[in-house]
Specification:
Layout lengths: L1 H7 L7 E4 H9 L8 E5 L4 E5 L1 H18 L3 E9 L2 E7 L6 H5 L17 H11 L3 E8 L2 E8 L4 E2 H5 L1
Parallel strand pairs: 2-4
Antiparallel strand pairs: 1-3, 3-8, 4-5, 5-7, 6-7
Helix pairs in contact: 2-3, 3-5
Length: about 160
């Protein structure tokens, strides 16, 4: 199914403003809650204009990957507003060098047995379709950190109303 979605799911983005913290909390539900705590450290009034469904897929994939890698905690936090930069940090064991080499390559980047390697490739394509970047900031024994940067920046509810 993931392979078919990769080929078929090339649609126009449905850009609209939405609450970032709410979407991230919802995406965090994808992680195994019995093993992994997902913490969203973003004020509830922060919003972004983007395709909510597509960004949900990006963050759900990042949270799920962290949980599957053995992280007991994953944190999403806003590190910059202009451009909007969200850091996803986990406390897992880090990624193997081979996985890092092929990280965003379709069908080559999976670090787990039976994986297609499409999750991060699709996530990067979605973020790039928004004009942003998805990058591995670091990985090691202390965990893994990804950064998602989107143009246009984050706004608060009061800014959006003006």
């Amino acid at each position: 199914a993931e392979t078919l979605n990769y080929v078929e799911d090339r649609r126009e983005l449905a850009i609209a403003p939405f609450g970032l913290a709410d979407m991230l909390a919802e995406a965090g539900q994808i992680a195994d809650k019995e093993k992994t705590e997902v913490v969203v450290d973003i004020p509830p009034m922060v919003s972004v204009s983007a395709d909510r469904e597509q960004l949900f897929r990006v963050f759900a994939n990042l949270f799920k990957n962290a949980a599957e890698a053995g992280a007991s905690r994953v944190e999403a936090r806003l590190v910059a507003s202009q451009p909007m930069t969200i850091e996803i940090r986990d406390n897992g064991p880090g990624m193997a060098p081979r996985a890092v080499e092929n990280l965003f390559r379709p069908f080559a980047g999976s670090a787990r047995a039976g994986g297609t390697g499409l999750g991060l490739a699709i996530a990067r394509e979605v973020v790039e379709a928004h004009g942003g970047t998805l990058a591995l900031k670091g990985t090691g024994a202390e965990g893994t950190v990804f950064c998602v940067t989107l143009p246009g920046g984050a706004t608060t509810a009061s800014e959006a109303a003006q």
